[in-house]
Structure formats: C-alpha cells, structure tokens
C-alpha cells in the first residue's frame, strides 16, 4: 500500500507541473534545494530551467527540449530509483499514459537516463494543479465549475475508453493550464482494467469504500474519486475530514456525507444529484461512465459538444448521452393506451382477413391425431412406430384457385365450410426416428422424405375428414407367390366423409408416389358443396391401400411442372442478387477498415453476435424435435450451430460496417441501442424506444388491416392474410411455440434492419446529402420489401407499402435503431401469429400469449421510461432532487440538525 505520499493528504507530485512563479501545492515538498542547478544539460538534449515539485515519486523539472525547441517537463526517479519496484512503476506510468491521446489528459513522451538516474519526458503545462488553485480561491463560480467538471469528465472518460483505470484521481493530479483547460495527470499507479488486483494503492481520502474493503479498483472507483473532486470544485470544501483509513471505514459504514447544498445553498439541484450519484456506497448505483456524469450536469450534452467540435462520438459517449430524463407521465400513458387499444382492435379485426380464423378449428391437434390413429386402425395398419410428427399446413392450391375464379366480395366466406379445406392437418408415423434433412427444427409433411417402408402420412381437414393418405409398401416382399388381393376402398371413403354410391368409376390419371399393383379412380360431388365435383384417386399393393387423395379442380401436379419465370422476375432477381452481393461486399470492406483503424464498436458487435447465437441455440434446445439418437442429434446440433454462427458473423460484420458511420452522421440513431448493448435494460431511453417502436408496430398493424379490408368497401374481396397459418405449420400453438416464434422473428428481423441502415449509410457516403440518401434509401427498401402478388387493388397495396416504408424511415432516423427494430419485430410476430379475441379456444394460446407479451412490453417500456421516478407523477412532494439521492441522504435531510 502507498499512503499519502506528502505531508498533506492531497499527496504527491503531479505529472504536469506548475507555472513559473505559481503557488506550490500544499505539502508537496516545496521548491527547496534541488539536485540539478538551472541550466544543467540532461542527456545532451534537455536544459533544466527550474525545479517545479518534489514528492514520493521523484522531482519534476521544467526543461527546454533543445532539439525541438519547445518546453517540456522532466520527472526524475528519486534516490533509490534503481529499485526494481520503483522502476517498474515508472515504466508502467509511461506504458499506460501513452495509450491515451486526449486534450484533457497530460501527454507522456518517452523514458530516458542521465548519470544513472531515470526520467520521464512529458508535456509541460503552463498552469497549476487543482488542489493549489482551490487552496488559493476557495471554490469556483458555478458556470466556471461546470466547465472544469465537464473537461475533467472528458479526460477520465478518455482513459477509461482505452481500458485505463487511474486509481489516484485527486485535485493534486488535475492540472489547470494558463487557458483554463483541464489536464488529468500522474498515471504512476494507473493500470489496465484487465490487470487490476486487490492491492490497496492510491490516496485513501479519495478511495471508494470497496477499495478500502480490499476489493479491486474499477472504473466505478474512479467515478467515486471523480465525485469527491467535483464536490470540492463546486463547494471549495472536502466531502469529509477523515484522515486515517480507520476513520474512512467508519465514515463509509455509517453512510454519512455532507451534501453540497448544505455548504452552497444556491447550488443547482441537478449538480448535487450528479455528485451524490458518484458517491453511492454501492458501485452498481454509480454512473456507468464519466461521460454519464457529464451528461447529468445541467446543460450537459457531451454528444452535442462532440458533434460541434467535428468529432465522431465514441460508443461510450453514446451510452452516456442516452441517459435522458424521465418520459412525462401523460406522454407515456398515452403511448401505453394507444398500444393496448390498437393491438386489441387489430385482434378484433384480424379474423376478417386471416386464414386460420376463417376456417373451422373445432378439433384440437390431439383430437385430430387420435382421429388419424383411428383411420390407420380401420385400414389394418398396426405396425410398431418409432416416431410421429404432426402440424398444420395451408392448402395454397385451393386458396389461390378461389382468388382466381371468384371475384365476389364474399368469396372467402366459403372457407367456413371446411370442405374443401383451406387449412389441413397432417400426421406422420415412422418405424424410424423422424429427423429433418433440411435445416429445420421440426419434421414437415415432406421432410424427412417418406421413403422408409411402413411410413404413413395422413392429411385431414380441420374437422377430421381424410383428404390424403400414403403408405410406403415393403422394400422386400417375402411372399414369392402372387395371389390376387382385393382392395377395399370403403373404409377410405368413410374416413373422407364421402358416399361411394355417389361416385362413378373413371380411368385413373394420377400416378401414385409409391409402387402399387392396383389403381382406381372415381368422380362425384363434394357433400358440402354438391355443385363442386371432385376426383378420388386410389392405389393399393396386395390389397392394402398405398395412396388415397381427394383431388379438386384446384389441384396441380406440382412435381411435374416446369418452373417458369417471366423476364421481369428474372431481371428483378438478378438485380436484387447483385445489389445484395455489392452491399455485403461493401460491408466486409468497411468493417475491415473500421476494425483496423479502431473505429468499430467491436465489443458491442461481439455482444450482439453472441446474443444472436445464444438465442438460435436456445431455440434448438427447446424447439427441436429431439430423438433418442446421439448421432442424429449431433448432426442437427452442428447444422443449427453453423447457421447460428453464420447469422452472428453476418450481424457482426454488418454492425461493424455501419455503426461508426451512424455515430458520425446520425448518432441519435444509436442512443437507445447503445444502452441496450451496454446492459442497461431498465433505462429511460430504452423504455422510450420500446414505447415508440411498439406504437409504430400498432400503426403498421392497422395499416395492414386497412389495406386488406378496405377493398370490401370498394366492391372488391378482401386481401387474405395467408401468413397467419405459418404459426400452425412451423411451431406448436403453445407457450414454447410462441416464445420460439418471438425469438426467431427478433433475430431474423435484425438482418433487414441492419441492411436498411447500411443502405442509408452507403447512399449518404455516395450522395453526401442526407435528404438524397433518405429518398434513395426509401426507394431501395420499398423495392426489397414489396411483394404485391395477387391483390384486388394494386394501387392500394402501393400506397400501403409506401406508408410502411416511410414510417420505418422516420422511426429509424428520428427515434433510432432500437425503436425501428422493435416495430419490425412486433409487427412481424403479429403477421405470423393469428390474432383473435376468442381467448378460450384451443388455437388462441399463441394469440393470448402474443397479446400478453405486447401489453407487457408496453408496461415495461413505460416503467423503464420513467427512469426511477414515480410512475404516476411528474413531481414528488419532497425537496428538489431527492428522488435520485442515496437512501441515507434522504433520511439525513429529514433529521434534526441535518
């Protein structure tokens, strides 16, 4: 431990030096007889002018650099400087301080030797240290104190940004030059953040409570010392008079501290709040950075100051600048009301234009699975099963056929019959584990391919009637004889709800997928719609049904159709591909350049990539169709992990590419996002962005419903939202399925949000005009997001898409990346999950959870946006600033004699 290194507790010489004729720091050793006389030439280059200070770490001289013809300062090790520990400390001071280059930090140049004595060359500051200045004048006027405080915060922040912890911040180590500028000095015991230990070093009077208790130094301990210095700057007094370590420990244990306003009654309350936050006993409750302290001071806007100076704000500066005041109660409650009212209005209107809400869903999946097993039993299939899988699927052929053939406004009303089905339930059995071959979490109707003998596939409508059946016959038939087996089709007709007598036999036309020795076909009316004739195709092997399918005029032989693309489609696909390649290539080049020049926020990008990877892997753990086969599990794990790593890498590269430019062009875009990456989840800026993003998502929901339902008022059928069925097809309608859907959408929406931001950045670099970049960027986003398809009113779709893109651009530029991403996530989740207000229906689980999550997001956003203030009052009935003071301070104010 090193205690006070001088006679006074301010202790120690400084790196920089006092002005000629200036006052000497109290107790600094004075300017008595020195080892070197003025005019002495040191190392053949430096001519000494005067002794400026003497302390435990040596003597400091003013000198002239004869080579460069400029004044510098030389700091000599004291006698005994050959001691390895002192020499290592000297080397550490140079190594650490040279990492920092900032106008508010005193610069060190080099290490030299003369006559066996080591010395440091450093910047000469024509001024005096803050301790001497306060000793002379008492305290600064508030305006001057604010200017000094902001510069001091900037210097400390510059050290912290380079990973350097000072460990000995005190007034004696802060220089004020002749122009009134602040210079942080004396990094003799500073250390890198990764190298901090529990040793007790520094000046005890300026140590944080945790340091005195044996804990390692951190940026938060420097923040504590910064608070003590600010206390002296604004009041001219020390925060406490304890001089021994024992007294200091007692002081910290009792939690008593003099408040700045008890000394200076007219001090701005926000200054007192900022100081007392720095002096919190718990390090976690202190500001996260020195820049956050500067931002909390009245009129403090370090972001605006950096922009005015033509500097690109650092990531740490954005984190600090994002500490905003609490959102007003009226504004916050209005946003919450809009979100809750809007999302429930969207849920009330969604069944009018959402396919899963238009078809009958009377039977739960478990009931349909039992029905499928009953059909298999009635057909005589009792083979042992190793695995089963099921799910829902949109019958897109039938939906598209209705859109092509029925122009009436009420054409979707026929979906309520359930036959023909627009949404079907599929059920598969297998004698082996069903492991998806593609990069998927769950088996689908065709993945893994049904080629193992004794695999069964059944497709039912939502009322449990058979639509399609397939069985894979044996690969090897042990019976060499070839007796005649008569196939019975009656059980299949019964399972499909068809009357055999109403159908007439016709020649088969549809070839069965698997080998069969018997084929048959019939045509007849559909019971629910007698005017609609359907075809039934069936095949059997040795009397057992191999396939059975109810085929309507909408059915297409998709496996034998040649994929045809128009010239416009091919041109658009080529254009999008080229644009994507160029954009990603540019992202790699920009990211590499930013990393090499150390402008990229590598730490933030890494946290983002790790979070994306972790969420993808959590989705595999909880959402994958796991099987008792270690090899299959490892194959799936490696495939999903590779995909998750690729997604994380792409996000990492893209973020490193555009983030430095966003800090340069639109720093406000990253304020809430930077707070999220820094881990401040209960932050007023983050809460505000959550409310704004979710509010924008509600606007998008209502716009989407308007463009789907408005055609009805104009005599056209509504535009059907088919995507709502994906929830049934891709994930179960339960809590795990809903949470995995939210997670997947959140990760996948990062890509379009990042690419859109990168596009804005690239266009800003090319055009050098913000308005041109925004206009061209909106066109690019419109082209990449728009897909009109078969819609009744193209002009309405065009207007709706234009409004969506405009709203997205306004949100991301005006309110930030986090708000825009939240809008994308919430809106796209509601496109996947079919909403409804029928809360007790079995299929409403995902809707109920989604509505609950949106309401919870709004509530949490409002809670966080208040920044710790009362939730329902903009003012509280206590003294100004009390709501942010430590508990012990609030109680002290209310006690007699406080």
Largest sheet: 8 strands, antiparallel
Query: Which class of the largest domain in CATH terms?
Result: Mainly Alpha
The 3D shape can be described as elongated
CATH topology call of the largest domain = Transferase(Phosphotransferase), domain 1
Secondary structure tally: strands? 19
Write down the Rg. 37 Å
Poorly predicted runs of 5 or more residues: 1-31, 724-731, 876-898
How do you describe this structure in short?
By secondary structure, the protein is an alpha+beta fold. It has 28 helices and 19 strands.
Question: Can you offer a commentary on this structure?
Answer:
This protein is an alpha+beta fold and 898 residues long. The protein folds into 3 domains: 281 residues, Orthogonal Bundle (Transferase(Phosphotransferase), domain 1), CATH 1.10.510.10; 200 residues, no CATH class; 268 residues, no CATH class. Helix content is 46%, strand content 13%. The chain has 28 helices and 19 strands. It has an 8-stranded antiparallel sheet with strand order 12-13-14-15-19-18-17-16. A 6-stranded antiparallel sheet has the order 1-2-3-4-6-5, covered by helices on one side. Helix 12 runs parallel beside helix 21 and helix 20 packs across helix 21. The two termini are 35 Å apart. The N terminus and C terminus are likely disordered.
């Amino acid at each position: 431990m090193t205690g006070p290194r001088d006679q006074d507790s301010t202790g120690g010489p400084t790196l920089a030096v006092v002005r000629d004729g200036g006052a000497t720091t109290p107790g600094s050793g004075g300017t008595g007889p020195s080892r070197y006389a003025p005019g002495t030439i040191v190392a053949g280059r430096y001519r000494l002018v005067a002794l400026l200070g003497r302390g435990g770490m040596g003597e400091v001289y003013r000198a002239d650099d004869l080579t460069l013809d400029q004044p510098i300062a030389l700091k000599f090790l004291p006698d005994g400087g050959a001691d390895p520990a002192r020499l290592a400390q000297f080397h550490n001071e140079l190594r650490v301080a040279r990492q920092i280059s900032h106008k508010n930090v005193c610069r060190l140049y080099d290490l030299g030797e003369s006559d066996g004595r080591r010395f440091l060359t450093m910047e000469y500051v024509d001024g005096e240290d803050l301790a001497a200045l306060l000793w002379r004048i008492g305290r600064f006027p508030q305006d001057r104190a604010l200017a000094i405080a902001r510069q001091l915060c900037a210097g400390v922040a510059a050290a912290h940004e380079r990973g350097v912890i000072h460990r000995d911040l005190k007034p004696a180590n802060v220089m004020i030059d002749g122009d009134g500028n602040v210079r942080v000095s004396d990094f003799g015991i500073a250390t890198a953040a990764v190298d901090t230990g529990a040793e007790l070093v520094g000046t005890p009077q300026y140590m944080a409570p945790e340091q005195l208790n044996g804990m390692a130094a951190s940026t938060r301990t420097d923040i504590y010392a910064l608070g003590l210095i600010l206390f002296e700057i604004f009041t001219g007094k020390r925060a406490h008079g304890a001089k021994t370590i024992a007294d200091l420990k007692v002081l910290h244990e009792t939690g008593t501290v003099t408040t700045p306003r008890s000394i200076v009654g007219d001090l701005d309350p926000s200054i007192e709040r900022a100081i007392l936050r720095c002096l919190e006993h718990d390090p976690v409750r202190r500001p996260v950075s020195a820049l956050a302290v500067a931002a909390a001071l009245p009129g403090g806007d370090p972001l605006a100051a950096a922009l005015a100076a033509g500097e690109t704000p650092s990531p740490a500066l954005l984190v600090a600048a994002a500490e905003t005041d609490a959102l007003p109660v009226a504004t916050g409650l209005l946003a919450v009301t809009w979100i809750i009212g809007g999302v429930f209005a969207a849920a009330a209107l969604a069944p009018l234009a959402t396919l899963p809400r238009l078809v009958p869903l009377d039977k739960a999946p478990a009931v349909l699975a039992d029905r499928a097993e009953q059909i298999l039993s009635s057909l005589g299939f009792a083979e042992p099963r190793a695995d089963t899988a099921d799910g829902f699927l949109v019958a897109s052929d039938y939906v598209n056929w209705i859109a092509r053939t029925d122009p009436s406004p009420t054409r979707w009303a026929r979906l309520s019959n359930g036959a023909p089905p627009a949404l079907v339930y599929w059920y598969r059995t297998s004698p082996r584990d069903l492991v998806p071959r593609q990069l998927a979490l769950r088996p689908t109707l065709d993945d893994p391919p049904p080629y193992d003998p004794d695999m069964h596939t059944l497709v039912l409508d939502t009322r449990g009637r058979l639509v399609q059946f397939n069985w894979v016959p044996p690969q090897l038939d042990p019976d060499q004889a070839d007796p005649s087996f008569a196939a019975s089709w009656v059980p299949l007709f019964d399972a499909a709800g068809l009357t055999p007598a109403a159908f007439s036999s016709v020649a088969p036309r549809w070839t069965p997928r698997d080998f069969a020795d018997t084929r048959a076909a019939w045509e007849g009316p559909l019971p629910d719609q007698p005017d609609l004739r359907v075809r039934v195709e069936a095949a059997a092997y040795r009397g057992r049904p191999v396939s059975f399918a109810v085929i309507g005029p909408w059915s297409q032989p998709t496996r034998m159709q040649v994929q045809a693309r128009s010239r416009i489609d091919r041109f658009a696909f080529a254009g999008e591909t080229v644009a994507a390649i160029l954009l990603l290539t540019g992202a790699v080049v920009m990211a590499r350049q930013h990393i090499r020049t150390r402008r990229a926020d590598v730490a933030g990008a890494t946290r983002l990539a790790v979070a994306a990877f972790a969420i993808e892997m959590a989705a595999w753990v909880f959402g994958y169709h796991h099987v008792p086969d270690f090899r299959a599990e490892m194959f799936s794990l490696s495939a999903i992990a590779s995909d998750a790593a690729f997604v994380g890498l792409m996000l990492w590269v893209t973020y490193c590419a555009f983030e430095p430019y966003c800090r340069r062009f639109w720093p406000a875009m990253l304020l809430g996002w930077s707070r999220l990456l820094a881990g401040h989840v209960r932050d007023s800026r983050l809460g505000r962005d959550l409310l704004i993003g979710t509010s924008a998502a509600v606007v998008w929901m209502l716009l989407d419903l308007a463009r789907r339902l408005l055609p009805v008022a104009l005599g056209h059928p509504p535009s059907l939202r088919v995507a709502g069925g994906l929830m049934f097809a891709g994930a179960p309608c339960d809590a795990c399925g809903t949470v995995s859907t939210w997670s997947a959408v959140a990760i996948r929406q990062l890509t379009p949000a990042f690419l859109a931001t990168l596009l804005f950045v690239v266009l800003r670099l090319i055009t050098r005009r913000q308005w041109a970049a925004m206009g061209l960027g909106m066109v690019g986003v419109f082209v990449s997001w728009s897909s009109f398809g078969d819609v009744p009113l193209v002009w309405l779709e065009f207007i709706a898409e234009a409004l969506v893109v405009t709203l997205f651009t306004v949100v991301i530029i005006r309110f930030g990346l986090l708000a825009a991403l939240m809008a994308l996530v919430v809106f796209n989740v509601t496109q996947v999950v079919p909403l409804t207000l029928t809360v007790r229906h079995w299929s409403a689980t995902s809707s109920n959870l989604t509505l609950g999550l949106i309401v919870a997001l709004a509530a949490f956003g409002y809670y966080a946006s208040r920044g710790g203030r009362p939730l329902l009052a903009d003012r509280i009935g206590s003294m100004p600033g009390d709501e942010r003071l430590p508990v012990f301070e609030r109680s002290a104010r209310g006690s007699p004699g406080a």
